[in-house]
Design a protein that fits this description.
- The complex is a heterotrimer of chains A (about 300), B (about 375) and C (about 270).
- Chain A has about 300 residues and is mostly helical.
- Helices cover about 75% and strands about 0% of the residues of chain A.
- Chain A has a domain of about 180 residues: MetI-like (MetI-like fold), CATH 1.10.3720.
- The longest helix of chain B has 17 residues.
- Helix content of chain B is about 25%, strand content about 35%.
- In chain B, the strands form four sheets. A six-stranded mixed sheet of chain B has the order 6-7-8-3-9-10, sandwiched between helices. Chain B has a six-stranded mixed sheet with strand order 11-15-21-14-13-12, covered by helices on one side.
- In chain B, a hairpin with a 7-residue loop joins strand 12 and strand 13.
- Chain B has about 375 residues and is an alpha+beta fold.
- Chain C has about 270 residues and is an all-alpha fold.
- Chain C starts with 6 loop residues before the first helix and ends with a helix.
- The chains are: A mainly alpha (about 300), B alpha+beta (about 375), C mainly alpha (about 270).
- Chains in contact: A-B, A-C, B-C.
- Chains A and C meet through helix 1, helix 3, helix 4, helix 5 and helix 7 of A and helix 1, helix 3, helix 4, helix 5 and helix 6 of C.
Chain lengths: ~300, ~375, ~270
């Protein structure tokens, strides 16, 4: 019997032609072939259009001229501020209320509570985005359900203006986004044992302090990730502000649509869209730096 | 390395037949970018033998096995199964069966379909396929489980299905990657016995990867000990245990104490392969590892726990020590002693005393430790 | 013996229940309202309804305009879901199981259309379509919808694929199967529930999609959401309550089926 232990091959030896050796891992070429349709899709339907958008935004030869013009318009600034502030309010409400709902779903033993909470997440989701708007309009309009109810009980004499203002936009966006906030938050909470709160309480902490000292720090990353996703989806929202907001409180997206469909000013639309894109990108990058790619990806997936 | 096939392979089942090559690795390398996972391993394995690759995690043993299976390409070198260079052959054409640590049973197929998969791919007619699959299932003790799904089986049963699937088409080589790792201890011991029995019945070469030295001892004709992408040592279990040739083999495989020699006095007159050294206050003549050159000035000693014993504490033989702790283990008592060394460096030795009704010494007891040189090997320091 | 709660703990618990109660009412009420109103027999929305009946459903069944918009939604959503699956599944296998370079970037770009601000992406597509005069073309709309269906395929099938051990394919190959056979017979076979679930979710998403249709549909492709959206200009059309109720039931059943499939695949592996 021969058993030999040889020393390492000298580094100077020419590397063997690797095409001669078989490997079960899919090589780069097979991967490329499988991904080719997606690559074509991304190039044609994403990169080219975005390139087109950028080139039109910078079309006037003086480079940043159109951008400067955008930011020197008071109307644009107002719209931008409105968009970013309203989205922030919606995000805050969604993450706060969403956290309470998700934590209750995670910890409650009551089947009834669970069923009601799941219903409140799933029912709006089932309606789809346009029908949700319809339901909110039915509720909020001048002769709508809420106004009739308020007058019926005698709280108000004449219909209150509930629609076509900032309140309606925030309400509509919250209604749309809350289910999408609860799911990733719940996924984040599921890694935290409710026993932690009990342990903290057994050590003498009050309920509030127990929650804030254990659950909050542990779930902060998932809250930040969820908030980021909610925020950037809100920033780009088009339908809700368009239908519930009316002309006095336009979101960036409405402004873009106006430019395209009413004024046929594609350049102005491109500049607004670009500013919106860059704004969202900044938000994503900030979140990326804060919570890391993994958690962000998980929040998207949920 | 000294190698005596008659004594080193008492378990070799096909010793009478003329020797045939089972597996040959020729300077096999695997690099991942800058990292060298397998660094030029050459190895010849006889057909019909059961060879274990034993090494700590990260030593490259699984990478090596996956290259033999064809799941990864070699970065350099070549792999031969039988008399065929398979380096560029896909796994399915290498004539290998493979058993994974997590079994990797197809979850959507019944037991019989799992076992028959390799036959189906080889286009066996359905009736023969089922017949053969039943035979193999009976061989692994799972007759009558045909229509179960993997998730309806216990860990040990899944393990048997994985094994049956790998041997159903009678491959020349059987590759196993820590196949018993996920089982509890009792089941592991029993399965190891069955693997060995099966190997006696089948005409194939087994390459078995594990980090568990007891498994390696129970199963193998030969054991290759891997460390940092290289084979550190290879031999029959008895040889590696009794005459380890490096300090790593002594401690990782043998579980021996490793102690430095205070002085190396050179070869003992008249006896080849031995060396006289000073250690633990004694001048002793011990076996010399082939890796230790005859005129080495420094050496370490591989000392099995049962090669140490206590001497009269009041006398002056051996080295003075203090009992640190003692563990009663039934058939033996392991006593850990802090030995006083000349240079004051800390040294702890494990001494295996017969157990039974003996009472372990209490910590803090002053003792003297002496070594029985017959069981000790001098290895490179 | 009851454990005494401190007052602050009680306040905390009370606050929690208050938030939960308000959230539940806020989220559930609009859906219930729509369903209730769909059984009112008035030709305008009246709350609370005085007369009950299936009038809204009758009107819907007799309206060519609304029925055609529903048909159009199916016409767009079915090929879109199929195309998205055909593009997304092989790509996901490449993203999860190959040594291709730039996987992270491609994955990010593939998912980008559902993360980018909707209107901004829609304008970009509008400019592209305007340049090649394909605004309002059916397949142009389908192509746009495919881009927002593919991310769901990548996410769901990717999650499914990560639950399937890569060793299964290897073991099939060691048993003699070719790579193609191992991929199709083992990995893709085990992926079927995930693929079906992603097909359903892609369909539901596209069925509901409005922003891209609004921008690149050129006003000629009238899907159901587009028809509802257009009706907002003339007030609240009561027959939409019937559409809403029906679509909630159908979507609910589809989601139930797809969740069941995803669960089944999770249990298996």
């Amino acid at each position: 019997m021969t058993a030999s232990v040889t020393m390492p091959v000298p580094a100077s030896r020419a590397p063997r032609d690797l095409s001669q050796s078989w490997s079960a891992e899919r090589g780069p070429l097979i991967g490329l072939a499988l991904a080719a349709p997606l690559i074509v899709l991304v190039v044609v339907m994403l990169l080219y259009p975005l390139g087109k958008l950028i080139s039109i935004a910078f079309d006037d030869g003086d480079g940043f001229g159109s951008i400067t013009a955008f930011f020197s318009s008071a109307a644009h600034i107002r719209t931008m501020r409105l968009t970013f502030v309203d989205s922030a309010i919606v995000t805050l409400v969604c993450v706060t209320v969403g956290s309470v709902v998700a934590w209750a779903l995670h910890t409650t033993a009551s089947r009834l509570t669970k069923a009601v909470l799941w219903a409140s997440i799933i029912l709006p989701f089932l309606m789809g985005s346009v029908i949700k708007l319809y339901a909110l309009v039915v509720l909020l309009e001048r002769h709508g359900v809420i106004n009739r109810a308020l007058m019926g009980i005698g709280i108000t004499d004449s219909p209150t203006r509930l629609l076509y203002n900032q309140f309606a936009v925030v309400l509509g966006l919250t209604y749309h986004m809350l289910p999408f906030a609860v799911l990733p938050l719940l996924a984040g909470f599921q890694t935290i044992s409710p026993d932690l709160v009990k342990a903290a309480e057994s050590l003498g902490a009050s309920r509030a302090y127990a929650l804030f000292s254990t659950v909050l720090p542990l779930s902060l990353p998932s809250m930040l990730a969820t908030g980021t996703i909610v925020y950037i989806i809100c920033l780009g929202f088009y339908l809700t502000p368009e239908v519930l907001g009316g002309p006095t409180t336009p979101f960036s997206s409405s402004l873009i649509a106006q430019d395209v469909f009413q004024f046929y000013d594609l350049k102005s639309a491109s500049v607004s869209a670009l500013v919106l894109l860059v704004g969202s990108l900044v938000v994503v990058l900030l979140a990326y730096a804060l919570v890391g790619r993994e958690r962000l990806a998980r929040a998207v997936a949920a | 390395m000294t190698d005596d096939p008659e004594t080193s392979q008492p378990l070799q089942p096909h010793a009478q037949t003329p020797r045939k090559l089972g597996l040959k690795l020729d300077r096999v390398c695997k690099r991942f970018g800058e990292v060298v996972a397998v660094n030029g391993i050459s190895l010849d394995i006889d057909h019909g033998s059961f060879v274990t690759i034993l090494g700590p995690s990260g030593s490259g043993k699984t990478t090596l096995l996956r290259m033999v299976a064809g799941f990864m390409g070699v970065s350099d070198g070549s792999i031969w199964i039988g008399d065929r260079d398979v380096s560029a052959v896909p796994p399915g054409k290498r004539d290998i069966g493979m058993v994974f640590q997590n079994y990797a049973l197809f979850p959507h197929m019944s037991v019989i379909d799992n076992v028959g998969y390799g036959l189906k791919v080889r286009k066996w007619p359905a009736a023969e396929r089922v017949k053969r699959a039943r035979e193999v299932l009976a061989l692994v003790g799972l007759a009558g489980f045909d229509d179960r799904l993997p998730r309806q089986l216990s860990g040990g049963q899944q393990q048997r299905v994985a094994l049956a699937r790998a041997i159903a088409f009678e491959p020349k080589m059987l590759l196993m990657d820590e196949p018993l790792g996920a089982l509890d201890r009792e089941l592991r011991v029993r399965m190891a016995g069955e693997l060995r029995r099966l190997h006696e019945e089948l005409d194939n070469t087994v390459l078995y990867v594990t980090h568990d030295r007891e498994e390696a001892l129970t199963l193998s004709d030969r054991i290759a000990i891997m460390r940092d992408g290289k084979v550190e040592s290879i031999g029959a279990p008895q040889d590696l245990y009794a005459r380890p040739d490096t300090a790593f083999v002594a401690s990782f495989f043998g579980g021996h104490n490793c102690a430095p020699c205070e002085a190396v006095l050179g070869p003992a007159p008249g006896t080849a392969g031995t060396v006289r050294v000073v250690a633990l206050g004694q001048t002793i003549e011990v076996a010399r590892s082939a890796r230790l050159s005859a005129d080495a000035k420094q050496a370490g000693l591989a000392i099995p726990g049962d090669a140490l014993e206590f001497a009269d504490a009041a006398g002056n033989t051996g080295a003075p020590a203090i009992v640190h702790s003692a563990v009663y283990m039934g058939n033996q008592i392991q006593v850990f002693c802090d030995v006083e060394t000349k240079d004051g460096a800390p040294m702890q030795l494990r001494i295996d005393l017969p157990g039974g009704r003996a009472v372990p010494p209490s910590p803090g007891t002053r003792v003297r430790v002496v070594v029985r040189p017959q069981l000790v090997t001098a290895v490179p320091a | 013996m009851r454990i005494r709660q401190t007052s602050s703990d009680a306040a905390m618990t009370g606050l929690g229940w208050l938030v939960l109660g308000l959230a539940a009412v806020f989220m559930i009420a609009p859906a219930i309202l729509v369903v209730v109103l769909s059984f009112s027999a008035h030709d305008k929305l009246v709350f609370p309804p005085q007369h009950w009946g299936l009038r809204q459903y009758d009107t819907l069944a007799g309206s060519q305009y609304w029925l055609q918009s529903i048909v159009m939604s199916f016409k767009v959503a079915i090929p879109t879901a199929v195309l998205a699956t055909l593009i997304g599944v092989p790509a996901t296998i490449a993203l999860e199981r190959s040594r291709m370079k730039g996987k992270a970037v491609l994955r990010m770009l593939g998912i980008a259309p559902i993360i980018l601000p909707g209107a901004a992406y829609a304008v970009a597509l509008y400019l592209f379509y305007a340049q090649f005069h394909i605004l309002g073309s059916f397949w142009g709309v389908v192509a746009a919808e495919v881009t927002i269906a593919v991310p769901f395929v990548i996410l769901i099938v990717g999650a499914g694929l990560r639950r399937i051990s890569a060793d299964l394919e290897l073991v099939a190959m060691s048993l003699g199967a070719s790579r193609l056979r191992a991929t199709l017979g083992i990995t893709v076979r085990l992926l079927v529930p995930s693929i079906a679930a992603s097909l359903v979710l892609a369909f539901v998403t596209v069925f509901d999609e409005l922003v891209l249709i609004n921008f690149v549909g050129g006003g000629q492709i009238i899907t159901l959401p587009k028809a509802i959206y257009d009706s907002f200009r003339t007030g609240t059309e009561p027959l939409i309550t019937a559409i809403a109720t029906l679509s909630m039931v159908v979507t609910g059943m589809l989601m139930l089926i797809s969740t069941h499939w995803r669960k089944a695949s999770a249990d298996r592996t």
